[in-house]
Structures are given as C-alpha cells and as structure tokens.
Amino acid sequence: MWAAIHDLLAHPLMVLTWYSGPSLRFHDFTSHRAWPRARATPQAVAFEDTPFGDLKAVPQAPGVWRVHHGRVNHAITLQAKTAVEACAAAQKWFHTLAAEFGGKFAAEYRYAPA
User: Fold this and answer.
1) Can you give the residue range of the structural domain that contains 71?
2) Of 41, 55, 62, 69, most Cβ neighbours within 10 A?
3) Closest by Cα among 72, 76, 104, 108 to 92
C-alpha cells in the first residue's frame, strides 16, 4: 500500500510543488514506510570508575558526542573528535557543576582497598 502511495502521490506532488520542503518530506516518509531501512544504532562508549561514576559517551553526529553523568540524570552535548576527548571535556564541565552545586554532582574519588 505504501509503495502505491509513494509512486502515485509523492512523486507527482514533488513535481507539482517544485520540490518544496513538505513534498520532499512526504516523499521520504512514504519511501521509508514502503521500503524500511535498517538504521545503525550509535554505539555508546563507557568510561568506568571516573570521579563522576560510570560515564557514557554516545555519538550524535560526526564530531558531536553526548556524555551522560554517572550518578545524576544529566548529560552534556559537545563537539569532540573522539569519545576520549568528549569525556575529558565533560569531566571539566562536571567539575564546574560540582563546584557550584555540590551534593550528588560532587566528584567521588574511589580508592582501591589496601
């Protein structure tokens, strides 16, 4: 059914509206409904035992990472080349949050038992 809608409605609509934005979005929508494509899910990079708990960096776009705080429901989206750079920049930001708010935002240093 979606293939018929795509071929009979979406293509003529694009031409009649001079390839307007809404007609292109309708074309893409019907195309994805008719022929679903597998999407790659971004792979999260975990950083364990940081002063702020276990951090998780998730790629959002090329060069853009979202780093989730380990102990509170907080994340920062920033520009970085790698997950390691993103984690380092996020830890700087988390240190400013710890200095200003303290509490659960405060850094916790874990020492191995002797």
Assistant:
1) 45-105
2) 55
3) 76
